[in-house]
Design a protein that fits this description.
186 residues; 7-stranded mixed sheet; alpha/beta
Length: 186
């Protein structure tokens, strides 16, 4: 997973509330476990609607409760594969939010009126280090859990986090093996 420090550029607008993960990537496309190749199926049913246009930009701004519904990991995979690096919304589905952070997709929670302003502006810069979104000459701060921030700044997925503790794990396993050996001798 790539490290995230700054995401800047155009903003794609999906001004809809309660977008669930089945709308993000329908169930018929969940037959693979690779993280790539899902972008072409993003919002599959909506993409058939006349006038549908979701340009590829680094930032997606959307309505309340984005990513609600089931816990499918494929939804963040599809968004990332499509080209998004960050999503700005007033709120997210809890599991979806967590899944985003595990694949290197930055979810940013901002008040609804600020999200609407970002949508209207069409361009933004998100600085994860200082936790700020800049657009139209404004800078708005956002909160993020320190552990999630660390993981994203350092490009660490679950395996990467485990490998950071490799020496501790090795030490624990050696100690456990030593204690196990002592127990079998008794």
């Amino acid at each position: 997973m790539d490290a995230i420090t700054l995401v800047h550029g155009g903003v794609s607008v999906l001004d809809r509330d309660d977008v669930d993960t089945d709308q993000i990537i329908p169930k018929q496309f969940l037959k693979r476990v690779e993280r790539t190749g899902f972008g072409e199926f993003l919002f599959y049913d909506w993409a058939k609607e006349p006038g549908w246009d979701l340009p590829i930009n680094p930032i997606l701004a959307t309505g309340r409760n984005f990513g609600c519904g089931s816990s499918r990991e494929h939804a963040p995979w599809a968004l990332e594969d499509y080209g998004f690096k960050a999503i700005i919304a007033p709120s997210f589905g809890d599991i979806f939010y967590s899944n985003c952070t595990k694949v290197g997709l930055l979810p940013v929670v901002l008040p609804e009126d600020v999200v609407k302003d970002v949508m209207a502006e069409g361009e933004a810069a998100i600085d994860l280090e200082v936790q700020e979104v800049e657009f139209a000459g404004r800078a708005v701060t956002f909160d993020i859990d320190p552990e999630i921030k660390y993981r994203l700044l350092n490009g660490l997925d679950d395996i990467g986090q485990s490998l950071e503790r490799e020496a501790d794990i090795d030490r624990f396993e050696r100690e456990r093996a030593r204690i196990g050996t002592m127990t079998t001798k008794l």
